[in-house]
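#data-curation
PF: Archiving a pair of folding outputs for the training set. Convention for this channel: one message per protein, sequence first, structure tokens after, nothing in between. First:
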Amino acid sequence: MHAPDEDLTRQVMDHVLHRLRLDPPPLGRLGEAEELSLALKGAIGAAPRDPAAVLRTYTQSLEPTVVSCDHPAFLAFIPGAPTKAAALFDMVLSASSLHGVSWLEAAGAVAAENQVLRLFADLAGLPEGAGGCFVSGGSAGNLSALVVARDTGRHRLGLPASAPVRIAVSDQVHSSVGNTLRILGVEPLVVPTDDHRLTGEALRAALDAAGRDGGAPVVAVVATAGTTNAGIIDDLSGVAEQARARDLWLHIDAAYGGAALFVPELRERLAGIEHADSLVVDPHKWMFAPFDCGALLYRDPRLARAVHTQDASYLDAIHGADGADGDTEWNPSDYAYHLTRRPRGLPLWFSLAVHGTDAYRDAIAHGARTAERTARLVEATDGLELLREPELTVVLIRRTGWSPEDYYAWSKRLLAAGTAFITPSVWEGETVARLAFLHPGVSDEMVQEIIKSLIEDF
């Protein structure tokens, strides 16, 4: 199985290069369970199969039923659009079988990843000693960071390892944070938001009340820099002020909005991010890295090492048993719950080095400017209502007279026609249209066609 197969290599590479040359790639379509079950029937068996036939199963039956996140008209959820450089280098990474657990095994890869993390730390205004690792995404980053927040808080208060504690979150916090707290056995202190935005004043009131309710102590607070549904940025400065005044760990989930650090006119909206004790940014969202790529940073990485370093005799070699300096021989496995990992930050490192940060600044800014122009277009269109001014790249639209069924039917028509992939969302209890602009290839003509489709029968 491990012997080189030149014919197989050529066929796969031909398909990869063909896919990379498509501009745009196919948008894709929805798949049906019955057709996919039929296509996959007998694909895996005891005997080998012709690689060309297996590749055809993918290209003809599987790939068409995958909606392409890197299509400019993929405007649902929070899309991803890796650069060609990043996608190509992701192939290099996969072909090289790099094991990015430790400095011992992958010093060069870890050093390159750390160069990117240093860039992010500098953009955020974190201190020179800040550091961390790349993880699979915001969910893994939030889980890893909040374990450290919980355990550090218990230690600060002199509590035993099993003592109940609380972490303050807003009622708009990402679903992965709620899931993390359930996994950790930590009770959330849910802070009501004003206009969907956590403020320092609301946090102050909630913490004061929590101090009188006889419940478990609060050890941390989570703020969001770019909510998924609407791209709203919390009052990071106000939240940070409350966290510092009460000696609470401040975790900032900037999985979506962290890319705005590259753009001067957007950077000011993230004022206060420099006070984070831990910070999550997802380059596979608005920084054009391949899935899956999340960046996790700590203000003081030693606190994370104290929580995440795994102790086993077979790991002594990577943990300085020979007297090596743990601050220079950096082990990514010491900063998150993982052990085995691919150095997933390398494709981003390659793309940043090839294109330069100015190109990233301009590409990121394109999404925000497209959202602003779309907002003005919606305001000027009879039958449509802009639900709030976009802070980042999400535009929420009400279509007069539509029911939830109308929005979903419209979404299906757009995908079936190959126009766009847009999924409705719910805003304040009402189904609405939601457009998320991240791809630098989104054109004004594309947006105009989508907006026109919303009012065709108005």
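PF: Second:
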Amino acid sequence: MTDIDPPRGIRTTPRRTVLISGASIAGPALAFWLNRYGFEVTVVEKAGALRGGGYPVDVRGTACEVVRRMGILPRLRDAHIDLRRLTFLDGDGGEVASVAPHTVTGGVAGRDLEIRRGDLTDALHTAVRDDVEFLFDDSMDTLDQSSGHGVDVTFRGGGRRTFDMVFGADGLHSRTREFLFGPEEQFHRYLGYCFAGFTMRNTFGLSHELTMWNTPGRAAALYAVGGDDEVHAFLNFAHPVPPFDAFRDPSAQRDLVAAVFADAGWEVPGMLAAMRDADDLFFDAVSQIRMPRWSSGRVALVGDAAYAPSFLTGQGSSLALVGAYMLAGSLAGRDHTEGFAAYEQDTRAFVTANQDQVGEGDAALFPTTARALDQRNAMLRKLSAMPSAEERPAHSALTLPDFAPVA
């Protein structure tokens, strides 16, 4: 049950057919709104099922209004992680500062949300699963717009179908984007860091808190979402160029991370040992996707596939939710050409403002020099005396339009 009335008078005959690739955050959110506007929606997802659990993600600013309009805000509030403290340590493991989370993230206490990624994807899927078609354990193999009357899609599982429009909501390494625009490298903006994430046993007595150890160019963090038996472990490090050889080789990933942190203190040796045995290791470059346009013909991109901001901004999920709302609303009562143009015109400034929160090699929490680390530590000590901080303007830089129903 939603807390807003659905749009009235949306033209539903004939229903335009659409395919969305990706069932994480942007995909189900886009499916929800397109269904509201009378589209016949199919979502294809290469995984065999929704991915549960996962690392925490943030829903901030304008995105909070999106989930309110979807009717899932109460459920997300129930799943909110009550992170109470961020503690920063020096290279010897001594405490530098302990601060309230919102003073660092720029979030608004009592409004913005932090939840497990799996809780968000499950809430989005539940909101739309009875109204749209989901195809799990499948993916697009080819797409062809040459007929001029739709998009002909062949699926990895052997099926063939034609849709009026196709949307790529398939993440940072989007295959849909590659189909349309070519190799990722031309849109990939490397920010100078790599990271590894995994879960390990919580033998540290941590609860509802994050503890981060730093030396110049290296960071190790333990994040206890609750009083669970497991913690999320993160190892982040500066690297001059993307380690392309390691991206598809888990063994090379482990070797690279172990080499970078070989002489590290604190709890890092135990984290490296846990990483060796982890079955959920996730490794990637810290990067953004920057594109001059997000659509071609009858195919458009949304979320990380079009404008990944990097985890350093904390805005990936929020941009996905807002982008999905804006894309669907822009298509209500418009053809794909006009709708895609409106989507880009009305959403790009918000995207750019959030992507511009971080530049190459200048992430505030991950200094790469001793001087920058000293400056960061001094800033954190000042923040520890502050009860709260102001919201970052970029988080709410877009006021959601109320898209008019179509007669």
